């Protein structure tokens, strides 16, 4: 199942710099591990925002929730999920 996911990062401005750096480093390592597994085929920065647009390819809603809630930045992100279905005019469908 494919999902379009928008993540807006909202780290508190008063977070300790070392704590922030550790969370961001763990986020990167986790994200790259999931990308290498094939379950996170697209990760794009939204121009001008501390936000990303991602495509996930996972087996279920529950699998996506488990993955997203495992992100180290999860407590500091606003996340919007859009489930995707095949478009009847898609020549690749
Ligand atoms: O910086 C972001 O958009 C948040 C994030 C998601 C995966 C990652 O490595 O950073």
UniProtKB/TrEMBL annotation:
Q: How does it assemble?
A: Homodecamer.
Which Pfam families does the protein's record reference? MIase
EC number(s) recorded for this UniProt protein: 5.3.3.4
Pathway of action: Aromatic compound metabolism; beta-ketoadipate pathway; 5-oxo-4,5-dihydro-2-furylacetate from catechol: step 3/3
Superkingdom as given in the UniProt entry: Bacteria
Domain Muconolactone isomerase, which positions? 1-90
By sequence similarity, the record places it as follows:
Belongs to the muconolactone Delta-isomerase family.
**Molecular function terms in GO for this entry?**
muconolactone delta-isomerase activity
As its record notes, the protein acts as a catalyst of: (S)-muconolactone = (4,5-dihydro-5-oxofuran-2-yl)-acetate
Q: What class of enzyme is it?
A: isomerase
Name of the protein this chain belongs to: Muconolactone Delta-isomerase
InterPro entries attached to this UniProt entry: Dimeric_a/b-barrel (IPR011008), MLI_dom (IPR026029), Muconolactone_d_Isoase (IPR003464)
Question: Which gene is the coding source of this polypeptide chain?
Answer: catC
The record's section on SUPFAM superfamilies has:
Dimeric alpha+beta barrel
Q: Which UniProt keywords apply?
A: Aromatic hydrocarbons catabolism, Isomerase
One GO BP annotation is: beta-ketoadipate pathway
């Amino acid at each position: 199942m494919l999902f379009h996911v928008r993540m807006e990062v909202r780290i508190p401005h008063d977070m300790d710099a070392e704590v922030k750096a550790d969370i961001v480093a763990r986020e990167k390592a986790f994200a790259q591990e999931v990308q290498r597994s094939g379950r996170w085929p697209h990760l794009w920065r939204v121009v001008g925002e501390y936000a990303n647009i991602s495509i996930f390819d996972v087996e279920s809603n529950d699998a996506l929730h488990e993955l997203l809630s495992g992100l180290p930045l999860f407590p500091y992100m606003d996340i919007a999920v859009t489930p995707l279905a095949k478009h009847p005019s898609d020549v690749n469908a």
